[in-house]
Write a structure and sequence with these properties.
Largest sheet of chain B: 5 strands, parallel
Oligomer: heterodimer
CATH class of the largest domain in chain B: Alpha Beta
Order of helices and strands of chain A: HHHEHEEEEHEHHHEHEHEHEHHEH
Strand content of chain B: 5-15%
Distance between the termini of chain A: 22 Å
Distance between the termini of chain B: 28 Å
Order of helices and strands of chain B: HHHHHEHEHEHEHEH
Number of helices of chain B: 10
Strand order of the largest sheet of chain B: 2-1-3-4-5
CATH topology of chain A: TIM Barrel
CATH class of chain A: Alpha Beta
CATH topology of the largest domain in chain B: Rossmann fold
CATH architecture of chain A: Alpha-Beta Barrel
Structural class of chain A: alpha/beta
Number of domains of chain B: 2
CATH superfamily of the largest domain in chain B: Cobalamin-binding domain
Largest interface: A-B, 33 and 29 residues
Structural class of chain B: alpha/beta
């Protein structure tokens, strides 16, 4: 069975040969070596595809690149959404005009400028052109290289809400949601237009999965009210998903935090795969029981507790527990819930994937 | 006008209405401290509703924005005396961590509860926290830390306080989504919370503010 068949079978809620595995998000580290580089050094496999094969990762990810023109002066090659122009000091500007600064330890960045923070008329701002030369050439090459073997994901996360607040500023956008309805509607419509075009390119390329997402969950609840989600985001997400689903693509949806109450409506608008279902914030057992035949669970392994603070035994136990609770009948793709920080040892990461490969064979004997 | 309308306007998240009512109350000669009290009452109500999960985080943030705007209208009329008695809380996101949403919510809640907040921003070194606390004679240091890699750095703040023999004078609280109570023992802080309202309650108890 190829990795691709394994993934597609589990999304169809059939049991493949073993639980499919995916990697964590890229580490957001810009200057310190990220988990993938550390893995390469430890395993002495100096090709990232080889590392992924060693770990048993069954999916491969495609990203829309910045335009050819922007790339001429850009720095940082990975991850692709962090292609930026260098500004004086420790500052950078991306293609959208959003500016970042790297923190004292070099591990993380924060936003220092949002291009829409002073703009009320959206005509004054030039949104990125999805069809500009240079955007999908790399993805086309990777598609040719990977698509026979692996399940391919086209990325389109930070779909509406997150991209909007990167552009506007977080508190500013929250205020706008209450006070500037017309502005918000226009901004989200512009982003919808852009995502529909981007989605069209992904499905034309023939990806298996389109990854959408916006963080709407906090540790204990929803960030915004359900009414507000239904008013601004649900209809646009529904339209986008309906367009994507005119083809054979599956829809993946990412939101950190507690989003359990949103699940029925995400299923209703066509979400097939939900990520990361943080175990600290959601009841995995209940979600599997109630929605396990309609939804594939992706992620589920704790990066807030077990990976950084647990022992190797704790990690193996967590893997086994997920297999037992969420694995029966397919519909589970195991992965760490988010970026693996520099405090997670490579031994722990390897133990995670080894135990998933060892115990994740169907029929599950856990 | 009825003075209670001010707190009601905050609860309804109406910034224009709240500011107009504050201006009207000032024009009618209402004691500015009483107006401030009404604003705080509104914030308290939103805080309680958030604690009961009747409102969402966005509503808490929005109420904070309304509070800030209304307080700016009121500020020129508040006497220095009102400021003088305020307890100082030094607040910031620990070095290496750049998340500020939680910290900003706590800053707003503390300010609206009558504390003077020295917000040092994000990516703050342990020594900077302690220097500010020493300089301002702050009673509390509030550290925001979201990441598993940065939470342990709170211990360095405590060690720095000990070095300067300030530990007994300054309480230390750490807050963040993934923060757990057992961090009090692990990092030697006085309190560890994953909820802004809980954090506010603890600081209020420490400083005997109702």
């Amino acid at each position: 069975m190829t990795p691709r068949e394994r993934v597609l079978r589990t999304i169809e809620h059939q049991e493949p040969d073993r639980i499919p595995l995916d990697e964590a998000y890229y580490n957001f580290s810009l200057q310190s070596p990220d988990a993938r580089e550390r893995l390469m050094r430890t395993l002495k496999i100096y090709d990232i595809d080889g590392v992924k094969d060693f770990l048993g990762i069954d999916l491969r990810d495609l990203f829309m690149m910045p335009s050819e023109t922007f790339m001429r002066q850009a720095v940082y090659k990975e991850p692709p959404w962090l292609w930026t122009h260098k500004l004086p000091g420790n500052k950078y500007r991306d293609e959208w005009g959003i500016e970042y600064e790297i923190g004292a330890t070099g591990e993380y960045f924060h936003y220092i400028h949002h291009p829409l923070q002073q703009i009320e008329n959206l005509e004054e701002y030039e949104f990125v052109d999805v069809n500009a030369p240079g955007r999908f050439e790399k993805a086309e090459e990777q598609m040719k290289k990977w698509s026979d073997k692996y399940a391919i994901c086209g990325h389109m996360e930070a779909t509406f809400f997150e991209q909007a607040w990167y552009l506007r500023g977080f508190r500013r956008l929250i205020r706008d949601l209450y006070e500037k309805e017309t502005f918000c509607e226009r901004l989200f419509d512009k982003l919808l237009e852009l995502r529909l075009e981007q989605g069209k390119r992904w499905v034309e390329l023939g990806v298996d999965i389109v990854r959408l997402g916006d963080d709407f969950g906090t540790q204990t609840g929803m960030l915004i009210s359900f009414d507000m989600w239904r008013k601004y985001f649900k209809p646009r997400m529904k339209k986008l998903i309906a367009t994507l689903k005119k083809t054979r693509a599956y829809v993946f949806y990412h939101s950190d935090g507690h989003i359990e109450p949103l699940i029925p409506e995400l299923i209703e608008i066509g979400v097939d795969i939900l990520n990361p279902i943080q175990p600290e914030c959601n009841n995995l057992e209940r979600i599997k029981k109630e929605f396990g035949t309609k939804l594939t669970l992706h992620g589920t392994l704790s990066v807030q507790r077990t990976l950084p603070f647990g022992s190797i035994e704790d990690i193996e136990n967590e893997v086994r527990s997920r297999l037992k609770i969420c694995g029966p009948g397919g519909g589970l793709i195991l992965a760490p819930c988010h970026a693996v920080g520099p405090d997670v040892t490579i031994e722990k990461l390897i133990a995670l994937y080894r135990s998933a490969q060892k115990y994740g064979k169907y029929p599950l004997g856990i | 006008m009825r003075i209670e309308e001010i707190s009601k306007a905050i609860v309804e998240l109406k910034s224009d209405v709240t500011c107009s009512l504050v201006k009207e109350a000032i024009a009618h000669g209402v004691d500015p401290m009483r107006i401030l009290g009404e604003l705080r009452k509104g914030m308290d109500e939103i805080g309680q509703r958030y604690e009961r999960r009747d409102v969402f985080l966005a509503e808490l943030i929005m109420a904070g924005e309304v509070m800030k705007e209304a307080t700016n209208v009121l500020k020129p009329y508040l006497t220095r005396q009102a400021d003088r008695a305020r307890d100082i809380v030094v607040l910031g996101t620990i070095e290496g961590d750049l998340h500020d949403i939680g910290k900003d919510i706590v800053a707003t809640l503390l300010s609206s509860s009558g504390f003077e907040v020295r917000d040092l921003g994000i990516d703050v070194s342990p020594s900077r926290f302690v220097e500010e606390a020493q300089e301002t004679r702050a009673k509390v240091i509030g550290i925001s830390a979201l990441l598993s890699t940065t939470v342990p750095r709170c211990k360095t703040v405590v060690e720095e306080l000990e070095k300067r023999t300030l530990r007994k004078k300054v309480k230390v609280i750490v807050g963040g989504a993934a923060v757990r109570e057992e961090y009090t023992v692990a990092f030697g802080v006085d309190a560890a919370v994953n909820d802004a309202i809980k954090g506010l309650e603890i600081i209020r108890k420490w400083t005997c503010k109702p």
